[in-house]
Amino acid sequence: MTTTLNRPTVRTLPNGLTIVAEQMPVEAVNLNIYLNVGSFLETDGINGMAHFLEHMVFKGTSRLAAGEFERLVEERGAVTNAATSQDYTHYYITTAPKDFAALAPLQIDVVTNPRIPEDDFAREKLVVLEEIRRSQDNSSRRIYQQAIEVAFAKLAYRRPVLGPEAVIEGITAQQMRFFHATHYQPTSMTAVAVGNLPVEELIDIVTDGFASQSGSMPAMEFVGKKSQPTPEPAFNRIVRREYIDPSLQQARLIMVWRVPGLMHLSETYPLDILAAILGSGRTSRLVKELREERQLVNNVSVSNMSNRIQGLFYLSAQLPSENIAEVEQIITQHIFQLQHTLATESEISRIRRQVANRYIFGTETPSDRADLYGYYRSVVGDLSPALNYPQQIQALDAKTLQLAARQYLSPNAYGIITVKPE
């Protein structure tokens, strides 16, 4: 199968920085700086540091006063933002091609040289604490966190990206400076530039932007995760947790299986298809039976969540409390069927078409492509999966899917979380 993507150019500089560039005939340019820095690498004592630092990056540098970067971006009609996850943090800006050479170095400056002044740090800590409280007041986020704590017994994926209030309250500006100096290094960065400028010009602008910086402070002694964690074993029994949440109108049911992460990328592909067969679209098995035909649930969805070290096969349903036991039984019956009966060719063909179309629709803008390239190069360490995902899905057959279901999805061993209104 052919795609609309041209193969991007990858350049690794002597300092370890990776630059990915691609010209795209859309009148915009996106610079997306990905770092292998997320909540997963934090110790318990600084859980939430990566996200807090994302806030502080925009509080000025030795060259830019606080708020000046945003003002300069807005004056030229550009946009900028950032996000932190468990496995990565990324900062991005989208500009007109004519403004890229002026604004890209500013984006690079705020990422590599934040001042982290004490007064701004104290004020922003209050903002982050309020964000944590809002998250705790959100029923969907609370339920997700409860599910994740069942899904992972030990891995740091069980912790919230935002961190606990008590930890954030105790973090100091000096700790954050050490964290930045240790982890915001060129070897941990991938800078992706996609848009309507020649590839070599994009690379030169990004290279010069990094070269013009004074560089972050030398890495200081900092206690962090050094060894590569190992995935947790699959559930060997049903681990059940039940909660009451009066804020809900209907109950929630979540079932999770521990599955391979992106370190074992090829093993995630059949699980992606199995998730789609079960819970993607009105004709998927669970949606069709549980919602459309038997009306036992208000909604149901299934996803294969692929973190770097370990993934989760994650099933979620909203339903009346009295239907929970019956719905769980039906779901496990479908898992059993996946293990013992081959998926039909029509089901697999439907998923193949969905994947191909979503891939095309999801790479139509410079920001889409920059995000795709940055994610795979940062989290997987390889750009090729960003280019050949549809082909990988096309190559899978029913027998491969059945083997994956047998290996990773058990109808008799999983984590299950139920949350009832009362």
From TrEMBL:
<feature type="domain" description="Peptidase M16 N-terminal">
    <location>
        <begin position="20"/>
        <end position="165"/>
    </location>
</feature>
<dbReference type="GO" id="GO:0004222">
    <property type="term" value="F:metalloendopeptidase activity"/>
</dbReference>
<dbReference type="Pfam" id="PF05193">
    <property type="entry name" value="Peptidase_M16_C"/>
</dbReference>
<dbReference type="GO" id="GO:0006508">
    <property type="term" value="P:proteolysis"/>
</dbReference>
<dbReference type="InterPro" id="IPR001431">
    <property type="entry name" value="Pept_M16_Zn_BS"/>
</dbReference>
<dbReference type="GO" id="GO:0046872">
    <property type="term" value="F:metal ion binding"/>
</dbReference>
<dbReference type="InterPro" id="IPR050361">
    <property type="entry name" value="MPP/UQCRC_Complex"/>
</dbReference>
<dbReference type="Pfam" id="PF00675">
    <property type="entry name" value="Peptidase_M16"/>
</dbReference>
<protein>
    <submittedName>
        <fullName>Peptidase M16</fullName>
    </submittedName>
</protein>
<dbReference type="InterPro" id="IPR011249">
    <property type="entry name" value="Metalloenz_LuxS/M16"/>
</dbReference>
<feature type="domain" description="Peptidase M16 C-terminal">
    <location>
        <begin position="171"/>
        <end position="354"/>
    </location>
</feature>
<dbReference type="InterPro" id="IPR007863">
    <property type="entry name" value="Peptidase_M16_C"/>
</dbReference>
<comment type="similarity">
    <text>Belongs to the peptidase M16 family.</text>
</comment>
<dbReference type="InterPro" id="IPR011765">
    <property type="entry name" value="Pept_M16_N"/>
</dbReference>
